[in-house]
Amino acid sequence: MASPVRVTSLPDQLFDRLVAAILDGRYAPGDRLPSQRALAAEFGVNMASLRAAVDRLAQLRLVEVRHGEAMRVADWRRSGGLEILAYAAGTEPALMVSLFEARAILLREAARLAADRASDEQRRELTALADAFAAATDDDLRQETDFAFMAGLIDASGNLVFTLIVNSMRASYLAQKDAYRAMVTATETLAPAYRAVAAAVTSADADAAAAAMDRLTAEHLTLLLRAAQ
Q1: Which of the four, 43, 62, 87, 138, has the lowest number of CB atoms within 10 Å?
Q2: Which residues of 132-163 are buried (b: 16+ CB within 10 A; e: fewer)?
Q3: Number of C-alpha atoms within 13 angstroms, CB side, residue 175?
Q4: In the predicted structure, residue 93 carries a pLDDT above the cut 70
Q5: At what angle do helices 47-59 and 11-23 cross, to 10 degrees?
Q6: Range 165-172 contact pairs with CB under 8 angstroms and sequence separation of 24 or more
Q7: Which segments within 112-192 are labelled E, that is strand?
Q8: Helix H segments across 9-91?
Q9: Residue 133's closest CA among 143, 123, 120, 119?
Q10: What does the DSSP 8-state code read for residue 25?
Q11: Phi, psi of 222 (to 5 degrees)
């Protein structure tokens, strides 16, 4: 599978390696994993670290662990939840496209709701963040501002389920920041798009807010796909 981890490594380093082995297909759904003792020996870790990693795999529903039976790899496409995005988006290009399609739909409807529900303070904050994106001087700052803008929009929508979904997407975004950086690089095109969303929300025009968000998320995806070519 992979080279052994140093004995002093943290369990999450082992977990990351096992996740990668499952998601990139080295272990297929239904495959039996080596015993926990064999895995601990292979990676050069103690049993406590190995069990901690296996517990996390089971929580993600990447493996099935039954007492007295061998561990088996689960089909994460059928059993996994949104939390798998933090690990799978980087290994599955098609999944990243699906993620951004889902993100676009969610943000469009969040913009529509925010236009109707946002407080005056939230409307001012979105406008300030749109201005901050235009003024950002590097991609790291633009990424942070983009994330703050979208989080503020979700809060302004007043939909708790949207918030929980975005919380799950956040893990993927933070884990794959380098892969997603291209989506904020075209400042001249993007800055007016953020401002258009903020302006539509501020003027309480739900249809305009949804349309402006559609344009912004479409540009994000275009930039990502162009960078991946």
Answers
A1: 138
A2: bbbebeebeebbbbbbbbbebbbbbbbbeebe
A3: 17
A4: no
A5: 50
A6: 165/82, 165/106, 166/106, 168/81, 168/82, 168/83, 168/85, 169/82, 169/85, 169/99, 169/103, 171/83, 171/85, 171/86, 172/85, 172/86, 172/89, 172/99
A7: none
A8: 11-23, 36-43, 47-59, 76-79, 85-88
A9: 143
A10: T
A11: -60, -45
Bigger pLDDT: 44 vs 91: 44
15's tokens? 């977990």
Taking a C-beta distance cutoff of 8 angstroms, is the pair 50, 40 a contact? yes
Domains and CATH numbers, the chain: 11-79 (1.10.10.10), 84-228 (1.20.120.530)
Over the stretch 100-151, which tens digit does the pLDDT of each residue have?
888 899 999 999 999 999 999 999 999 999 999 999 999 999 999 999 999 9
- Tokens of residue 47, six digits: 């049993």
What is the pTM (predicted TM-score) of this model?
0.73
